Amino acid sequence: MWMNDPNGMVYFDGEYHLFYQYYPSDTVWGPMHWGHAVSADLVHWTNLPIALYPDRLGYIFSGSAVVDRENTSGFGQNGKPPLVAIFTYHNPELAELGGKNHEYQGIAYSNDRGRSWTKYSGNPVLPNTQGLQDFRDPKVFWHEQSNQWVMALSATDHVQFWRSGDLKKWEKLSEFGREWGAHGGVWECPDLVEVPIAGTSEKRWVLILNLNPGGPQGGSGTQYFVGDFDGINFTLDDGFMRLLDDQKAAWLDSGKDNYAGVTWANVPEETGRVLFMGWMSNWEYAQQVPTFPWRSAMTLPRKLTLAKFGESYRVVANPVAELKQLRERSWHLGTRELPDSQSVPLPVPFPVSRSEVILDFRLPQTANQEISIELSNGAGEKYRLGFDGPTDEFFSDRTAAGDFSFSGKFAGVHRSRRLANSENLRLHLFFDVASVEMFADGGANVMTEVFFPSREFDRMSVRAGGKGVVLVNATVFELDGIWH
Fold this sequence. Notes:
By secondary structure, the protein is mainly beta.
């Protein structure tokens, strides 16, 4: 049935928990529940019963979950820490009356590894006393330096920060964002997290902020800010501030179909990883895409790091290493110069519509060529993705990739300016039957796109629009399915 935002992502007792916005009665949005799945490896998932149902206070909107190690909430039993979920209640009756007090925050707790949940009798723990139309999506974490719980909360066009000692009583700290970033729509699903700088022992705070509409390709999108958090205020890094003087926003994913993403809480510190997952859709057409009996999926889980580009740090995203276990057969093509404006078939002996593809190119110094990979089928449908040298942009072209009759905002060529500056270019791609996730230049540029061919793509080719492009390596892996 219907699924949207990932919620309550937390690692506990050997399991990654993924809750999500869920409507079990239809394939379109409706009264929101928290669906629930768990995984030991971020790849293979087990569906569990619905965790949270709507009640007299309203629908269960997005939120987060934490491990209350010191039992600050008092919900723990037998000396073991409880899991505590923090979520938004959306009261449809109050919303229909036109008031601006219909969203507020509640909590629930579990003492059996998330298998059953008890809502706190004192809900709501954070009422909407500010008269805010949008007051939602709490992301909570323990801030060691100030010895308190901190909540990042969406407030229509900015983020508010709140603190608590026990997850029940909350006090406002500060605000951020009215004057920064993209403001084409409502700010949603914030996430404040420390992200490591690749190759160093340093970290910077990153505020992830989802926006709808106003994304980089129209509709939904995820922007971010790099800075510092002192337990009260979030302040922008100087280099990142200068970046925002030159452009509206920095986007975590420049494709059309990655929204509402946040990071996992309580990931083992020894791994040093910040793990992210988003909803693979866009509100411009999410409820019309031609799938049944399910609607929507999540992106692959990704590891986030920071890297310096020019004066500013930028978020780099890459698929988690655990995905390598899905690799089965492989196919390889060695170094060769690509002919000008001719497609070179990649005769992969397994389904290309479920594959991982690594392409390494060496570009000529002029860098005015276009390179692309194309998937196609016998119905004449094709999907193209690649790099446009003259404009220095990656592109995703789904104008001929199958059915787009369900929405006038679906088909198009979506573009993302390249961040790296090198003659060596790597495309790391994950194709599924109806989606692609691109990680280019080591994750500096990321694009997620869905498409709906009438039959599976079964042909793969590469092409260079110009002379001097060398395909250094092409490796394709057949991928096992995760659902058996």
